[in-house]
Amino acid sequence: MTKPPRLCSCGNVVPHGEFCACQIKARRERNARHDARRPSARDRGYNHEWRKARAEYLTLHPHCRECSKHGVTRLATVVDHVIPHRGDKRLFWHRANWQSLCAPCHNSIKQRQERPT
């Protein structure tokens, strides 16, 4: 059974589960404003030293922590900071604050957890 379409605030009828063009445009503009204010990855500490430490950590912890909670074995590709470091170098380099995640978990579950409410 399919759910009925919905009416967007701009007046367009949108199929259930999809985004209206105005919502997509607004999200892209919001993301562009955020990225323009955000320091570069290098300025945030993700440099050669980080890449070496990340590779070493993934060698020691090769599986996604989030997937393993659900009995799934998937190789991790991302070293994530459990507590967002927000520029705190001590927290950034504290390995007890690191976890291995696969890209899908990092880009969905983890981002949803960190989104401001």
Can you characterise this structure?
The protein has 117 residues and is mostly helical. Helices cover 44% and strands 10% of the residues. The protein is built from five helices and four strands. Strand 1 and strand 2 form a beta hairpin.
Please describe the structure with a list of short key phrases separated by commas or semicolons.
117 residues, 5 helices, mainly alpha, two-stranded antiparallel ribbon, two-stranded antiparallel sheet, 4 strands
Produce the secondary structure layout:
Elements: E1 6-7, E2 13-14, H1 21-37, H2 48-60, H3 65-69, E3 78-81, H4 89-93, E4 98-101, H5 103-114
Antiparallel strand pairs: 1-2, 3-4
With strands numbered from the N-terminus, the spatial order across the biggest sheet is 1-2
Any low-confidence stretches, pLDDT <50, length ≥5? none
Percentage beta strand: 5-15%
What's the helix-strand series? EEHHHEHEH
Percent range of helical residues: 40-55%
Instruction: Note the overall shape.
Output: flat
In short:
With 117 residues, the protein is mainly α. It is built from 5 helices and 4 strands, in the order ββαααβαβα. The chain is flat.
